[in-house]
Amino acid sequence: MRTIRTLALAAAAAGALAAGAAHGARGITVKGSDTMVILAQRWAERYMSDHPGAIVQVTGGGSGTGIAALINGTTDVCMASRPMKEDEKRKLRDRYQTMGVELAVAKDGLSIYAHESNAVPSLSLEQLRGIYTGGITNWKQVGGRDAPIILYGRENNSGTYVYFKDNVLLGRDYSPRCQTLPGTAAVVNAVARDPNGIGYGGAAYGQGVRELGVRREEGSPAVKPNAETVRDGSYPITRNLYLYTRTRPAGDVKKFVDWVLSPDGQQLASKVGYFPVH
Amino acid sequence: MKLKAWIAVGLMVPLGMSAGSWFATAEAQTEADSVAAPAAEDPAARLEGLVEQVQAIQADTDRMKRFKFSGYVQLRWETAENSGDTVKVAGTTLTPANVERFYIRRARLKLTYDASPLSQAVVYIDGGSDRTIRLLEGYLALLDPWTTDHRHQFWAGQFNVPFGYEIERSSSLRELPERSRAENVLFPGERDRGLKVVMPLTDRLETVVAVINGGGISSADFPTTDPTAGKDWLARARWSQGVFDAAVSYYDGRQLVPLTGDDIEVDRTRLGADAQLYYELPTLGGGSLKGELYRGANVNADSVTALTVSSSVGRLLRPGADPGHFDTDFLGGYVMWVQNLGEKFQFAARAERFDPNTDLDHDQFERVSLAVHGFYDGFTRVTVSYDIPRTEVPAGAGYDDVPDNLWTVQFQHRF
Questions:
Q1: Nearest C-alpha of chain A: how many angstroms from B383?
Q2: Parallel, antiparallel, or unpaired for β B327-341 and B380-395?
Q3: Band of pLDDT at residue A5, cut at 50, 70 and 90
Q4: Are B95 and B103 in contact (CB under 8 A)?
Q5: Residues B147-158, buried b or exposed e (16+ Cβ, 10 A)?
Q6: Contacts for A225-230 with beta carbons within 8 Å, 24 or more apart?
Q7: pTM of the model
Q8: What is the pLDDT of residues B161-186, one digit of tens each?
Q9: Full set of structural domains in chain B with CATH
Q10: Average pLDDT of B21-45?
Q11: CA torsion angle B319 B323 B326 B327 (round to 10)
């Protein structure tokens, strides 16, 4: 009798789960990096127009949010402007017994934005590090006018925030004076309005602001992000943009990522302002 | 009829008063507006004001983000094969004799405060199986400033004993409802107080060294004293390839058996080895094979029979009892297979064995455990598991297995 009750309860639990599983049929969901939102939306629009019946839903929230959604099973594909961290891979492995599949789908030159009126032509990586960690606080310290530097940056769930911190600040913490904003577009808007502002973000967003050249060393030539400098790696803050899946892509997800990596998908990445991965 | 009338009056009076006060407020507001009607305000100035407000809110929000709450709740329904069963398999005190019951196995809340990228504090409490809330973990962690991912760490406080694989693995992630019997016996409560240093030697190789009281949070002496004069210490080296991880662990300690007169101090040395291999199958998804081995010397639970304990004579050895029996060589371990069945279901099977005294026969514990998980969403998991333990007990001229198989249905939500 007790075994029958056990099995009945187990069956009820399985039924509830099956209902939950059935709830999952809703096309392909893509979530994550705000840097990649515009790009992924363009990909989705073109893909759906070329593949009638296909549904691709794109939402932002930041790379960290997208990776969390991938781990929690609330998105099929995660877009991230930074590689997954070891502890994120461990969480994915704990749940799905896999390490996830990483697909580099575009390249981006992380641009440094300043106001149109700012006369500073370029900054070295060391100067950028000094500015964003709070050691350099006035534009005259880097060859500009006598005015305080107003820092704009991204929130800590942003892949751009993490990438900049790891690769430019070398892991040091941002200055507490850095004002965090919820997207690259917001950073660009803030810098466009602030003559003393400085910000960073994806190359595709640099409208209404001036992109500063970046020098790898103090005496190195200043380089601005473009297709050539990003491809050959001479622009010092070049990064890959990624799509992640939990397991090897299959079915509709595989068709979509295959298309993203096809010449059509890569050409669209160039049109949006990013750079092909190959 | 009378009652209805009173209800109507009771409702209308406050409503009327509310309406009256609203009209009065609205009228006063209109007057105020007409008196203080401002000149056309500069939109840019208003925008600046809003930006400042948003920045102030942002600063407050950033401070709040330093607090992170997480936790999980596990509700269980268990039915055991006989009324003499021990349905609580973890901990030193076995709860007897419920054939079938609902209970909350774990209800845990963790608060992490990230003061900066270089330090954090953690408080972790459990209100599940006991009637009181108890502190499971409480520690501070200092992280190194010289690497980008801050992998060198120093911990001080109460935390999971860094030995082997399953101890530090959260119960909310484990593929079977309980850890292995060897772990339950050797590290009851899984946690202890002390210091821990994490030192990665390469990207793949991480070492941990810790000094702890010994005995753990479930020991009778916890938390006030550490009966042994010296501290226990342990070390672990783990190689993490991603699809293949392996570690060796070493624990060195002493345990005091208090007696009236001279106490007996016995060896508590443990060696451990564990490995995990991950793979992926088309259609089904990820899977893994895991194994862990424990061996060493430990205070044998049976040694309590060698004591006479009473308020009049204190704690004495029974006549003829062998003090050497307090400390016996043990050997235990498990192998486990986990296979995802698509993304919504998962299967797990484990075979384990624990021999508390390798010099004796018929004292071994063996168990096969099977489980199927269903994931309702990213946060909720339903588990149906079946445990088939085998414990030999004297029966007639030989030994027999106690009928104590156990069905468990568990609902878990993580947040």
A1: 8
A2: unpaired
A3: low
A4: no
A5: eeebebbebebb
A6: A225/A109, A225/A110, A225/A111, A226/A109, A227/A270, A227/A275, A229/A109, A230/A107, A230/A108, A230/A109, A230/A203, A230/A275
A7: 0.79
A8: 999 999 999 999 999 999 999 999 89
A9: 68-414 (2.40.160.10)
A10: 54
A11: -160
Q: Do the domains spanning A25-108+240-272 and A111-236 agree at the CATH topology level?
A: yes
The predicted complex's ipTM stands at: 0.75
Q: Is the pLDDT higher at A263 or at B117?
A: A263
Calculate the CA B365 to chain-centre distance.
Answer: 23
Cis peptide, bond prior to residue B223, ω within 30 of zero: yes
Taking contacts as CB-CB distances below 8 angstroms, the residues of chain A near B242 are 89, 99
CA B348, CA A247: separation in Å to the nearest integer?
19
Whether pLDDT at B318 is above 80: no
Fold exhibited by the domain A111-236: D-Maltodextrin-Binding Protein; domain 2 (3.40.190)
Cβ distance of B148 and A171 shorter than 8 Å: yes
Dump pLDDT digits (tens) for B351-360.
999 998 888 7
Residue among B55, B169, B376 whose CB faces A16 most closely:
B376
Show the tokens assigned to A121.
């032509």
Where in chain A are the domains?
Answer: 25-108+240-272, 111-236
Q: Which two tokens stand for residue A120?
A: 């500073």
Query: Nearest CA to CA, how far is B146 from chain A (Å)?
Result: 8
Looking at the partner chain, which of A89, A172, A246 has a beta carbon nearest the beta carbon of B343? Answer: A246
Minimal Cβ distance to B409: which of A10, A95, A97: A10
Q: Collect contacts of B102-106 with beta carbons under 8 A, ≥24 apart.
A: B102/B75, B102/B76, B102/B77, B103/B75, B103/B76, B103/B78, B103/B129, B104/B73, B104/B74, B104/B75, B104/B76, B104/B128, B104/B129, B105/B74, B105/B75, B105/B76, B105/B129, B105/B177, B105/B410, B106/B72, B106/B73, B106/B74, B106/B171, B106/B172
CATH topology of domain A25-108+240-272: D-Maltodextrin-Binding Protein; domain 2 (3.40.190)
Percentage, residues of chain A above pLDDT 90: 61
Collect all residues of chain B within an 8 Å Cβ-Cβ radius of residue A94. Answer: 169, 173
Contact A156 B411 (CB under 8 A): no
One-letter amino acid of A255: K
Residue B259 structure tokens: 């007696």
